[in-house]
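User: Hey, my collaborator sent me this sequence without any context and asked if I could get a structure. I don't really work with proteins. Can you help?
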Amino acid sequence: MKAARAMLDWSQDNLAAATGLSVTTICNIESGEKSPRHSTARIIRQIFEKEGLEFTEYEGIRVRSDEVRMLRGPDGYEKLLDDILHTVREKGGDIQAVFFSGEMLGKSGFIERANFKQLKKLSDEAPIKCVITEMPQELTLPFQFKIMPKQYIGGTHYFSYGNKVALLLSSGSSQLCFAVVEGTDLLHSCRRNTRG
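Assistant: No problem. I've predicted the 3D structure and written it out in structure-token form, which is a compact way to encode the shape of the chain:
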């Protein structure tokens, strides 16, 4: 625990506040005077993992590197929506969809494959902010649109939410593929580029 706290530059007070445990309990566990219960160890581990650390068999603890998951196939889009919903519920924040044009927004499947009920469910959890170069015609969606110059958007279409970015790698009726990257570096870079 001391090493993990040091990596986060946390005091025992910080860890106690994050876990809901007392400072005395943290101190007793670290000094070896007390062994944590399974549930207490799980809470401590979850807090450290939430902060970007991971526990490994050989290295002990380290900063987690960004993870990439591929969502593809006929249910790739539904998996993405489920991931967005679950992540936003857990991490909070908004949902940002960035597309070069209204046409690309349509090709992404975000509109065509989602019924209004799915989009409403997402928008009830968090605002959906769509950054785009031109306003889509005749769309009634629960989005907050922001028009930006093309140089700020580029050719990569993506969703950012929680601590993740989902890059649209291909489009088409049955060939959607999203690369979901978990980690703050790419997320901060994407969000910085769309502030305008």
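In plain terms: The chain has a mean pLDDT of 80. You can pass these tokens on to your collaborator as they are.
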